[in-house]
């Protein structure tokens, strides 16, 4: 498979060298960008897709506990399967509540290339 793709970079940016929209040319990075969009978009934030996203930024205001971590884990898993199930297979979502932060570890398989990838995020509460 051709591992080149031309899509608008997320987060939105301007390419300094060309003075135009920055593009993402790596398919792997494009998939990671799509995952980040699902994770950081709050439901109701997109006009034409009001249920899109899982809104982990909201967890900044939630009590930091094992219950919050488990709830976040379920929300992330369901959102990734719902919105990106055609391009990735989610192998594992692990969310841990450590002090004032949530550590999110996602293991997924890119279906088109059969490559296993990891995405590790930290949400500070």
UniProtKB/TrEMBL annotation:
Domain IraD/Gp25-like: 26-114
One Pfam family per UniProt: GPW_gp25
InterPro entries, A to Z: IraD/Gp25-like
Domain of life: Bacteria
Name of the featured protein: IraD/Gp25-like domain-containing protein
Origin species: Aequorivita ciconiae
